[in-house]
Specification:
157 residues; alpha+beta; Cyclophilin; 8-stranded antiparallel beta sheet; 13% helix; globular
């Protein structure tokens, strides 16, 4: 069984996530494909709500952009707890594309409505630093927090 991870190297530090390939295989494949192609490089965390989540993955930084395709929902039994990686979407449950969020705190009201597909395994201090940034209008950090690179690694377990 392979254990795929992505390390998000951000202007606030690094965060590493591992994936629930058995619970959301299409989301894992989509996210790792985008990461390996450099899609996330240079993007920002455009929405940050302390005590809730940090959101990134929008190519234009507005919260409206995506990769040009959607991934159908893969709702599962993973609770949206601190450190869970989940896909953002529009009103349509099957509208996830490239935008993702990492829970800063438990957000169980999202369970069964958003696809949880991974979890933070390193970089909680980075998550806290991003969530603790000064926030301006529309929950946007005053000083942009950038994803400098997203590096995919896979280890055989």
């Amino acid at each position: 069984m392979s254990n795929t991870q992505v390390t998000l190297k951000t202007s606030a530090g690094d965060m590493t996530v591992e994936f629930f390939e058995d619970k959301a295989p299409k989301h894992v494949e989509n996210f790792t494909k985008l990461a390996s192609e450099g899609f996330y490089n240079g993007t920002i965390f455009h929405r940050v709500i302390p005590g809730f989540m940090i959101q990134g993955g929008c190519p234009d930084g507005t919260g409206m952009g995506g990769p040009g395709w959607n991934v159908d929902a893969e709702f599962n039994d993973t609770p949206h707890a601190r450190g869970i990686l989940s896909m953002a979407r529009a009103q349509d449950p099957n509208s996830a594309g490239s935008q993702f969020f990492i829970c800063h705190a438990d957000a169980n009201f999202l369970d069964g409505q958003y696809t949880a597909f991974g979890r933070l395994v390193a970089g909680e201090e980075t998550l806290d630093a991003i969530a603790g940034a000064a926030i301006g209008a529309n929950d946007r950090p005053v000083e942009p927090v950038t994803i400098e690179s997203a590096e995919v690694t896979s280890t055989e377990a």
